[in-house]
Design goal:
Elements: E1 2-13, E2 16-28, E3 33-37, H1 44-51, E4 59-64, E5 67-68, H2 74-81, E6 84-88, H3 99-109, H4 114-127, H5 143-155, E7 161-165, H6 173-189, E8 193-198, H7 201-207, E9 210-215, E10 218-224, H8 225-228
Parallel strand pairs: 3-8, 3-9, 6-7, 7-8
Antiparallel strand pairs: 1-2, 1-4, 4-5, 9-10
Bound molecules: adenosine-5'-diphosphate (2 copies).
Domain ABC transporter: 2-232
GO molecular function, one term: ATP binding
Protein name: D-methionine transport system ATP-binding protein
């Protein structure tokens, strides 16, 4: 369902061109929890941002359900992006909006009416265990609760793909485990394909079905987690 073919990404920087991705090809099947692991600066974030075209690849194609996103204009991309939710290490919540308003935000942007918004937001808050926190502000929440809001917001437009950019890296081990369990539940119950980028082996071993190891903009290895990381 997600097919990246021969992706190159060059950033123009003040000290010259920087090749963040060099000929990356990757296929992610429907229903998978696909991990992308590598050191800081390896190109993970660039790679995942190419999936929703937050970054346009310099070369190569990005296909989702057979449609090539690199050939689309901004209007077409907006429609496809509804299929792709994203969560971040620093949560990226609106600090002067309530939990409810944060989750409602993408729907409001899309022009959804208030009644429909309410019918979508409350079940999402229930799904992530925050129905009692609808009127709180992000500053009143723990890190784990903030990421739950991020997850609910990412699911608001009914995506079939969830991209997770170091989503548990700012959380303690116990909270990380709870968020990973929630992501697993979302994958299973809502049939959402998940792509996780991380520098933590534990995240890969805990919930990923497949993994790609990225190093200096190149995929060093990829395959089922048990094949790539053989446990003694
Ligand atoms: P990772 O997520 O694995 O830490 P990134 O994809 O963020 O790696 O970065 C890969 C390389 O591209 C790094 O050398 C980084 O400095 C560079 N890079 C990332 N984003 C930009 C940008 N917007 N402009 C210039 N260079 C960038
Ligand atoms: P507006 O678009 O004028 O901001 P909304 O109806 O979107 O009005 O929301 C007004 C306030 O009511 C917001 O603070 C929101 O958090 C809250 N709110 C709206 N619907 C619900 C609901 N079903 N449960 C809890 N809070 C809600």
């Amino acid at each position: 369902m997600i097919k990246l073919s021969h992706i190159k990404k060059i950033y123009e920087t003040s000290s010259g061109p920087l090749q963040a991705l060099k000929d990356v090809s990757l296929t992610i099947d429907r229903g998978e929890i696909y991990g992308i692991i590598g050191l800081s600066g390896a190109g993970k974030s660039t790679l995942v941002r190419c999936i929703n075209m937050l970054e346009r690849p310099t070369e190569g194609t990005v296909e989702i359900d057979g449609q090539d996103l690199t050939k689309m204009n901004e209007k077409q991309l907006r429609a496809v992006r509804k299929k792709i939710g994203m969560i971040f290490q620093q949560f990226n919540l609106l600090s002067s909006s309530t939990v409810y308003e944060n989750v409602a935000f993408p729907l409001k942007l899309a022009g959804t009416d208030k009644k429909t918004i309410r019918e979508k937001v409350m079940p999402l808050l229930k799904l992530v265990g925050l129905e009692q926190k609808a009127q709180q502000y992000p500053a009143q929440l723990s890190g784990g609760q903030k990421q739950r809001v991020g997850i609910a917001r990412a699911l608001a437009s009914g995506p079939s793909i969830l991209l997770c950019d170091e989503a548990t890296s700012a959380l303690d081990p116990q909270t990380t485990q709870a968020i990973l369990n929630l992501i697993k539940k979302i994958n299973r119950e809502l049939q959402i394909t998940v792509v996780i980028i991380t520098h933590e082996m534990k995240v890969i071993k805990d919930i990923c079905t497949k993994v790609a190891v990225i190093d200096h903009g190149v995929i060093a290895e990829k395959g089922p987690v048990i094949d790539v990381f053989i446990n003694p």
